[in-house]
Write a structure and sequence with these properties.
- By secondary structure, the protein is an alpha/beta fold.
- It folds into 2 domains: 163 residues, Rossmann fold (3-Layer(aba) Sandwich), CATH 3.40.50.1970; 201 residues, Dehydroquinate synthase-like - alpha domain (Dehydroquinate synthase-like, alpha domain, Up-down Bundle), CATH 1.20.1090.10.
- It is 50% helix and 11% strand.
- A 6-stranded parallel β-sheet has the order 1-8-5-4-2-3, with helices on both faces. A two-stranded antiparallel sheet has the order 6-7.
- α4 packs across α5, α11 packs across α12 and α12 packs across α13.
- The structure holds 5,6-dihydroxy-NADP and zinc ion.
- The site of zinc ion (ZN) has 5 residues, from α7.
Amino acid sequence: MYNFIFQNPTKLIFGKGMISRLESEIPSGKRVMITFGGGSVKKNGVYRQVKDALKGFYTVEFWGIEPNPSIETLRKAVKLGKTEKIDFLLAVGGGSVIDGTKLISAGLLYDGDPWEIVRSGKASGTVPLATVLTLPATGSEMNPGAVISRYETNEKFSFGADYPVFSILDPETTFSLPKNQVAYGIADTFVHVMEQYLTVPGVSRTMDHWAEGILETLIDIAPKIERNQNDYNMMAEFMLSATLALNGFIAMGGVPQDWSTHMIGHELTALHGLSHGHTLAIVLPGTMNILRESKGDKILQYGQRVWKITGGSREERIDQAIHMTEQFFRSLGLTTRLGEEGIGEKTIVEIERRFNERGVAFGENKEVTGTVARKILTDRL
Ligand code: NZQ
Ligand code: ZN
């Protein structure tokens, strides 16, 4: 185990009916901007619950933060927030609304164009922000990260803001999710764990078992959720798994982290608009296959503990673990090949070009350069 510092200040408020607690959690006298996506919260009753709880506050609503939130939209929100002298933000929605609101929270204290904050990689100051989460997937409700797109240039980058002060997670809000969003959310959660787990064995037994526990939970609950999405306990497990997968808990012990699947996935979203979780389901099996040498020992541990693969040679067991991973994504109803989405060589060349131009190299060994990203994507054609 390596040295590490862990601190997660987000207060997690979890369960049925908990949205009503907004009233007591937001300091009185705050001028609150409530941010939303495209309107799902009006259909499932979440909007009403939020408004009822905030009767005693001065509120301004900002609607229209889109999936893969854009700088173009968020600039308007920052402008409105400055005019209204907003000093508290409440994001109500999925990861996109929360991420977008993280940029607003930084933009309100910044004089220049908020895109500069994204490109600098780190916000220098933020207005307090809280969330009501309606889509388990990103972990954004309990981490400081945010991913913002720039539509005019087909770019997508992440940056660091602050942790939400508190997040309210009521599993009942997820009953209305479309089936594809549930699948993307499960895939995203699964891959968040893999990014922090599938590197080398032997750094931390505790973290390994915690990560494997989340993976096994997802494999267990996915078919049950598919059968009945209104099963409160299953959706609660899904919601808690998604938060635990990316709130820093499984990264204690200073475990090595990969994130190359995410970085490649972001490019697929930026160039083709594919949903985030979907891109990961396509890319991850390729990352595992192309990096099978450096990751081999951990893939064997993953295969044995998560998929109970014990027979066959080393290479056969690695193949089997990759196969089971891809099959899991397919069992969620997702396609796992670029060709199935009409994406081909041209995109692969563009992603290689972008990585080379930026001079980046991802992964725990910094081995995923533009050239290796091309190999990973070519493996997924
Ligand atoms: O916009 P509305 O109308 O609310 O509809 C949304 C949206 O169309 C809908 N939805 C959300 N909750 C619902 C619902 N529909 C019915 N019932 C509900 N309860 O779902 C659609 C997708 O929402 P979105 O917020 O885009 O999904 P997700 O939570 O998967 O967020 C994806 C974004 O998060 C980023 C991704 O890159 C992507 O931009 N990520 C953020 C991370 C972070 N901050 O730590 C890490 C992740 O790896 C990821 O990169
Ligand atoms: Zn993700």
